[in-house]
Amino acid sequence: MARKLESNPALVPFGRHVAALRKQMNPPLSQEDLSGLCELDRTYISGIENGKRNVSLTNIFRLARALGVEPKDLLDYPSAGEP
Amino acid sequence: MARKLESNPALVPFGRHVAALRKQMNPPLSQEDLSGLCELDRTYISGIENGKRNVSLTNIFRLARALGVEPKDLLDYPSAGEP
């Protein structure tokens, strides 16, 4: 049985920011759409948005390209990096 | 024997940026200093700076705190995210 992932408080705001960027697209993207664009599994996208996945730098680059933003914009949100 | 790490072209510019930020500190930090500040092994820091480590988001946060910058500043360099 797959290990149940716990959300990491330091990652939750990042996840919310990714979800907000996804929904602000025109037209808004579903997690499935984003998953296809950045070739990451939809459940992995869901895990990122719920603060349960400690995403790697290359996957940050993939997300940024798919969302049409600069990588630094993905980390541009209040409380970024606070423990 | 430890697997020899290859550098990832997408990670090399990030590594150079981290090394530049480290050396711009006042006083400049050694890799050993930075390693102590963010509680990451010195060889891991060296691997990051040589584009051989696909650093995770929580470690990006650690590096940013240790270098006294915002996480988004760590991704603010030319060609960030280009394949």
From TrEMBL, chains A, B:
UniProt keyword Transcription regulation present: yes
InterPro entries assigned to the protein according to its UniProt record, in alphabetical order: Cro/C1-type_HTH, Lambda_DNA-bd_dom_sf, TransReg_Diox_bact_type
KW ATP-binding (keyword) present: no
HTH cro/C1-type domain mapped to chain residues: 18-74
Record key words, sorted: DNA-binding, Transcription, Transcription regulation
Protein name, entry field: Helix-turn-helix domain-containing protein
Naturally occurring in which organism (per UniProt): Microbulbifer halophilus
